Amino acid sequence: MIKTTNLRKVYRIGTEKIVALDNINLEVEEGTVCCILGTSGSGKSTLLNQLAGLEKPTRGEVAVRGRRISKMTEKELALFRQQSIGFVFQSYNLLPGMTAIENVALPLTFRGMRRRERLRLAERMLTQVGLGDRKKHNPNEMSGGQQQRVGIARAFVTNPAVVFADEPTGNLDTHTTKEIMTLFLDFSRQKGTTIILVTHDASLANYADRIVTIVDGRVVDDKPNQSLYDAERRQADAEKAWEEDRMPPEGLALLGPGGAEGPGAPTAGEKSQAADPPFHTAEEATKQPSMGGQSK
After folding, report:
1. Given phi > 0 = left and psi -120 to 50 = alpha, else beta, which region is 43?
2. pTM of the full predicted structure?
3. Of 111, 85, 47, nearest to 194 (Cα)?
4. Which of 204, 209, 269, 284 has the most beta carbons within 10 angstroms of its beta carbon?
C-alpha cells in the first residue's frame, strides 16, 4: 500500500542545513492503522507530508498503491489525492461559511458529482458519525468534537484508500478523544481503509495496529501492536455472550486485561482443564452428576 525507500528530506535556512528525515524505509500494508509517534520536532509531520505527497523528498522515493507519488507532477498529485486520499486535521479545517453537510460534500464537488447525489452521500456520512440532526449547522454552532466528526465524515465520504490524520484529537478532551478514535477504527475495519495517524500521544498510539517511533528524523522503533479498539470489542463480545448464556464463565477469564490474552489470563493447560475437568479413573467419570443433577 505505502512504501518509502531511502527517504530523506533536508531543509536549508541560509547556510544551515536541517535534516528533517534521514533514510526512512517504511512499508505499510493495506487496511492497517499505523501510528507515527514522536515528540515535537521529531520529523513525524514531515513524514506525513511526504507520504501524502504534500512535499517532495530531497532524495529517495514514496510509493502509494504502487504509484511513485514522489515523481508525480503537481497536477498528477492533485488528481491522485482527490481519488485516493483523505485528510483529518487537528484544527478541523472546516469552511466557516458552509454547513456541515456542505463541508462533507465538498470533496465530491471536485469529482464532478451532481449536487443532489453528493448531498445524499454527505448526509449518509453525517448520520454514520452521529450528526444527522446537525447537517445544517455551521462550524461555529458545533462543539470541537462535533466539528471533528464532520472532518472525519468529509475524509471518508470519497471512500479513500488512505486517510492521513495529523494529531486529530489534539484539541479534544479524553472522553471525546475515545469517541473519535472509535469512529476512525470503525471506518477502517468496515471499509479496509489504511490510516496513517501522526501523534505525540502514546495513549492514542494504543489504538493502532502498528507503532512507528521517530526521533530526530530517524525511525528508532517499529513494532506491531494489539489495537485497543480490537481488544475492547473482543471483551464486549465475550461479556455479551456470557450474558446470553452462550459461553462458560471461564470464557471471560480467558481474555486478559483489556480483552487480550495477557498477564493474568489462564495458561493453555488451565483452559483445557476448565473446558474438560480431568478424572483420575473411569469409575470417577461415570459417577459424575448429569446435567439434571442425578448420577448415572
Report:
1. left
2. 0.80
3. 85
4. 204
